[in-house]
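**Entry details**
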Amino acid sequence: MWCGCRRLLWGRSPPARLPRPPPAAAGSGPVGPGGGRAYAPPAERKRFYQNVSISQGEGGFEINLDHRKLKTPQAKLFTVPSEALAIAVATEWDSQKDTIKFYTMHLTTLCNTALDNPTQRNKMQLIRAAVKFLETDTVCYRVEEPAALAELQKNEWDPVVAWAEKRYNVAIGSSTSILGPNIPASTKETFVSHLASYNMWALQGIEYVITQLKSLILSMSLIDRHITVEKAVLLSRLEEEYQGLCVRRQYR
């Protein structure tokens, strides 16, 4: 896909690779569509444990730092619903060196948010906030100029929008207006009903994905495995990639 996009902009392959998407901001928790913010952990702390393990308790899988049970910022027992997630969190803790760099532990932060729910939102509030993102969805906002970018958006975003419309039997569309597209109420309710099938843990994760991609459509395409993580990130950064290529073109 991206070789084609680069040829569209350059007329041939560019002399250098596209820049990689930047990592998440260090130490900052994700801001939810409804304005809620996940925990922002302290930047660093000296490592105080030697061994990391997991165990199964009554409430789920727990993380053990030596003989201590991991706790959330609100001092709740840190428990997750699956062994795979517990292993992933334990790996974050085990991979820390002499200094614990909390800003590198994204799953731990996300789980803390799910367990403590610091913004005190219920399931429907999470769902409504996610669906509201349709009104400002990245792939629905289009430009008219420059023509090369408009063509790039059409070629790369239209197939994803078309997939979502067919997959969920809804109308979405796109717009070049600063007001964005007029999303039908029936489309929003369809997504509300679909998201209601997920539990709170899943919704916290979905919200995080939406805030990173700035797109409900790309997020659902990713969750349904219609597109890969790499493609979702690149599509969410289409304009930035275009601008980067234009700068390179000036100095080739």
Observations:
- The first helix runs from residue 2 to 10.
- The chain is about 45% helix and 10% strand.
- The first strand starts at residue 44 and ends at 46.
- Residues 26 and 104 are 7 Å apart (CA to CA).
